[in-house]
Amino acid sequence: MSSPINLQIKSLYEDFSPKEQAIATYILENPDKVAHSSISDLSTELGIADSTFFQFTKTLGYSGFKDFKLALLKQENDLSAVTIHENVQKDDSVLVMAEKVFDSNMKTLTDTRKLLKEADLNKAIKLISESRRLYFFGVGGSEIVATDAYHKFLRSPIPVGHSTDYHIQLMEASLLTQADCAILISHSGKSKETIHIAEAAKKAGAKIIVVTSQANSPLAKLGDVVFISISEEIEFRSEALASRIAQLSIIDSLFVILMFNNREQAQDTIAKVRSVILEIKEK
């Protein structure tokens, strides 16, 4: 498997059944024990049938438990890092809380970087570079990431668009064409609003780039290219705290690559933006 097993499990976790989530949690919390135990011992401890654990490994893409265990042994050192970052505790000092937030963000970036694939980056840049217009879509907390992306890509040679209003986003998506590209951001990948936007954009023929934390989410299945952001969030998972940092970094990466690939045009666009902003600052 090209991706570390712990990151693979996290990206699929929300789509697992309750039994599968119990197995996944056990693997994440006890990687060393799983790597050195038999399937019978593990199944007994979890109170499940051997076949249930076996089927779970097949869900992850392995031929069976032996294949999974071999891959786990190879990645044992990486998996042991899962338990390093604990949740913020009530008795933690404010400094310790802040340090844990920083640790979580840094681990999120490291984990997300491991999932980046050159083929995906090349394909996304090609779609963006060849698009007539590039639109950014996101709802709720993801709208903040979309706005940041729009603000950034205004400096690129590609015409861009973004609205903070959901209904306007939906209208914009419906007016896209085969010559356009849409980047949709959603932590869960299950936001009905964002899915509706993606469906409208796809129906219009636009190319779709998705940034999400859930690899098997409905939104991810609509993407021509999908980037996965991984985070350690547990208690505040729905708030997508650390994953936002990873999503911003994915967007930053696409922006930098695009600008370097179109250096002359990019320099001209940046010069125009800097010139008009400088005029305001000097008054």
From TrEMBL:
Keywords attached to this entry: DNA-binding, Isomerase, Transcription, Transcription regulation
A Pfam family per the record: SIS
Domain named HTH rpiR-type: residues: 3-79
One example GO MF annotation: isomerase activity
InterPro entries xref list: Homeodomain-like_sf (IPR009057), HTH_RpiR (IPR000281), RpiR-like (IPR047640), RpiR-like_SIS (IPR035472), SIS_dom (IPR001347), SIS_dom_sf (IPR046348), WH-like_DNA-bd_sf (IPR036388)
Residues of the SIS domain: 124-264
Alphabetical GO biological process terms: carbohydrate derivative metabolic process
PANTHER family reported in the protein's UniProt record: GLUCOKINASE, HTH-TYPE TRANSCRIPTIONAL REGULATOR HEXR-RELATED
Name listed for the protein in its UniProt record: Phosphosugar isomerase transcriptional regulator
Naturally occurring in which organism (per UniProt): Enterococcus devriesei
